[in-house]
């Protein structure tokens, strides 16, 4: 190894140590194995970040770039609803006001579909149901504008200083954040049992119509079906402007890690990048 390569490695190690010392958080065993970042995974996502449970960075790529986050937004929607103490058993009915006039997405929740607030949260998180998320915001005391204000207030409380929310479903391109901020949101969302349950439920049957049969929804994260993954929380997102997005809390080598992948083009790219990251971490550990 020549001096240039040695210097590059020394600089990387110094940066990591400085970051860890500055955070005041000790490195976990998993994170401590990544001081030499030579041979980092070849990811297709424009931004990527992996941290351990203490917030130490295991891998980062363009982590402070502000990007649209699409339906990752729904994690914030759920947190604001749950923080409010609103009755989760209260029935909410979908109306014409909940249709998507931005991305023009469809929905199986037709006008008149009625579900509990809890079920609406479940569908918004696990199956990324846009009308469910929009109906949740519309039924906020004070209306939609006040709900969006609460979303941005919650972001400030979480010190997500480079994030902005414009609607509860993530349909507007103005829903933006960074990988660094989204790790904070994933960490906060993990403290809500209903969000953990919703985001890891593979299949849910609901009965939104009095005189019709049930609707069956599936989870948008196909990695939940992969026996190699132990996922404790997840959320996918997609609009054209955001590309494919994925955030997760998973257990790897017995340790909890947060994964954020933004702006992946290709339907399977976030799942492929997640597998590449996992394989890289296992090879390094």
Based on DSSP secondary structure assignment, what is the total number of beta strands? 11
Give the rounded overall mean pLDDT: 89
Number of helices: 9
Shape, please?
globular
Q: What is the assigned CATH homologous superfamily?
A: DD-peptidase/beta-lactamase superfamily
Rg, nearest Å: 20 Å
Beginning-to-end CA distance, first to last residue: 23 Å
Which class do the helix and strand fractions yield?
alpha+beta
The helix-strand sequence is HHEEEHEEHHHEHHEEEEEH
Q: Report the biggest beta sheet as strand number plus sense, adding barrel if it closes.
A: 5 strands, antiparallel
Helix residue percentage: 25-40%
What is the strand arrangement across the widest sheet?
Answer: 2-1-11-10-9
Oligomer status = single chain
CATH topology: Beta-lactamase
Low-confidence stretches: 1-25
The CATH class is Alpha Beta
Tell me the strand percentage band.
15-25%
Total domain units:
1
The CATH architecture term is: 3-Layer(aba) Sandwich
Can you walk me through this structure?
This protein is α+β, with helices and mostly antiparallel strands and 285 residues long. It has one domain (67-284): Beta-lactamase, CATH 3.40.710.10. Helices cover 37% and strands 20% of the residues. It contains nine helices and eleven strands. It has a five-stranded antiparallel β-sheet with strand order 2-1-11-10-9, sandwiched between helices. A two-stranded antiparallel ribbon has the order 3-6. Helix 3 runs parallel beside helix 7. The longest helix has 21 residues, at 3-23. The chain is globular and about 55 Å long. It starts with a helix and ends with a helix. The model is unreliable at 1-25 (pLDDT under 50).
């Amino acid at each position: 190894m020549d001096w240039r390569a040695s210097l590059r490695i020394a600089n990387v190690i110094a940066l990591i140590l400085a970051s860890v010392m500055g955070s005041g958080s000790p490195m976990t065993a998993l994170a401590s194995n990544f001081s030499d970042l030579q041979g980092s995974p070849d990811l297709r996502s424009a931004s990527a970040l992996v941290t351990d449970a203490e917030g130490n960075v295991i891998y980062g790529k363009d982590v402070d770039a502000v990007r649209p986050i699409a339906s990752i937004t729904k994690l914030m929607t759920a947190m604001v609803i749950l923080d409010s103490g609103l009755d989760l058993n209260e029935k909410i009915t979908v109306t014409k006001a909940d249709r998507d006039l931005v991305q023009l997405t469809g929905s199986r929740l037709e006008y008149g579909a009625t579900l509990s607030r809890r079920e609406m949260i479940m569908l918004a998180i696990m199956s990324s149901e846009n009308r469910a998320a929009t109906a949740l915001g519309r039924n906020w005391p004070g209306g939609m504008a006040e709900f969006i204000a609460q979303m941005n207030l919650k972001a400030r409380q979480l010190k997500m200083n480079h994030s902005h929310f414009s609607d509860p479903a993530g349909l507007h391109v103005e829903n933006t954040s960074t990988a660094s901020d989204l790790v904070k949101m994933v960490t906060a969302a993990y403290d809500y049992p209903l969000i953990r349950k919703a985001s890891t439920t593979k299949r849910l049957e609901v009965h939104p119509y009095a005189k019709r049969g049930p609707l069956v929804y599936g989870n948008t994260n196909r990695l939940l079906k992969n026996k190699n993954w132990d996922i404790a929380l997840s959320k996918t997102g997609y609009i054209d402007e955001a590309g494919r997005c994925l955030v997760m809390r998973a257990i790897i080598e017995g340790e909890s890690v947060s994964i954020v992948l933004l702006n992946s083009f290709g339907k399977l790219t976030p799942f492929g990048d997640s597998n590449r990251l996992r394989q890289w971490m296992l090879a390094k550990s």
